[in-house]
User: Fold these one by one.
Assistant:
Number 1:
Amino acid sequence: MVLLNKIYPVFLSENTKKRIEKVILYVALLGFFIHLALIFLSKFNIINFHLESELFKNPISAIYTPFSFILIYEVYLLIYYLPKSFTTYITKQYEIITLIIIRKLFKDLSGLQLTSNWFEIKDDLQFTYDILASIVLFYLIFQFQKQGKRKNNQPKIDVPKIERFINRKKILAVFLVPTFFIMALITFSSWLASISFTTEGLTSFETINNLFFDEFFTVLILVDVVLLLISFFYTDKFHKIIRNSGFIVSTILIRLSFGVSGLVSTVLIISAVLFGLAIILIHNKFETNNSSSTKPTIKFKRL
């Protein structure tokens, strides 16, 4: 436990979070200007990359790069909030998949074909799906956060047991920081190695968009299962177990969305967040019911 108290602040303290936030913002700005410069250098044939990628055709698509770094920061925030609040940890999962869709919108904007055959063009249809999905997800996340902040009136009991559970989550969070960092480096290195600048060998956009995050959500599923198993040591309440199990199902649905494309992917993502919202709504009903049933009744004697 002494070792945990030494390592935890190094990775997940408030000061560390602020430093990482500042670094990410600077890197995001730098990445944006580099991407923009590459687009214009390619456009005016100053440098010929021989790349037929949508990411190098329009200056609007340069916004894709800073959003990618913002997503990395969101991954860190997800780990940061894991020991602090389970619902905030799940909320961050939903925010990440929503930001992935928003990031994709900037690519879609650069390739829109404004014609009367809007609903017959595949890319324009996908843009329609994504923009509607981002609005729906924004609202669902708002509702999920609202439900997650609800407090019940039940007295807090067995504080040492709660502290032990938090310490277990801290250990998991400390392990996840270097794990995801290494995963990101390996994924980025593999992607760079797969690019051939002498041919039109840039990875397809769908692959780039899912880069790292398909493996990321696979690991999150395993993390959610570990959290569920650990929670059995500290609670046997049915509604808590169902809530944690439901969130695993929600994460699995998000992971499945990376294996498909088009409308099916969008429907899976919305279904995942909607399922998570339904789970927490029912969980809160259970909490309210249990709270009201445990309130002491006052009996008055007749004079």
Number 2:
Amino acid sequence: MRILAIDTALGQCAVGVLDRGAVAPLASETIAMERGHAEALLPMLDRVMSRVEGGFPTLNKVAVTVGPGSFTGLRIGISAARAVGLASGIPVVGVTTLSALMAPLIAYPRSRLVVAAIDARGGRVYAQAIAPNGRTIIPPSILTVREIVRSLGSSGVLLVGSGASPIAAEAWAVGLDVRVHDAPPVPEIAWVARLGAVARPEHAMAKPLYLAPPDARPQDGARLPHQ
């Protein structure tokens, strides 16, 4: 199985193609960016696919990050993924950014609780926590830093993501055994592809995962009356 992976959810634009079971992508490209995904993504797709022998017809599935993340970034990546899937007649699956951040840490035996956390601003984070036995301790949620720390218990914790530092500071203040992993605060595109390879379209739909409402809201006073 050959998977095309796309990530525009957070602070990067990334595309990669991976054969299932392979260690490294056949081709990939990543550019760090907070804005400009719409302009960068399609040329990047063309460049990456030009380095894959056989091109688009050799793809079997498309995986795309579905959030939590930037509202604009999510729409851009998901739209592109759906377009490739429709044009190629292949399934498209969604991969959460929290799962992609945790994947390299939970893929191997471990003794610590793994927490993926993405800064949601205003003292809140998007978070998910998985115990060493695979049990979900915190499902994908938006919580305050204090709420997360209260949920961690007394066992060792490994944090990853852009929201890791404030959680660690709060946890250290109350004496918890917490470590911050040195991985980048964005998903590795190869892990988006690996998760996508095992995902089923009916259970991992390519639609945005919004854990919080958008900041922008309609102004009731500016609405025109219905005729």
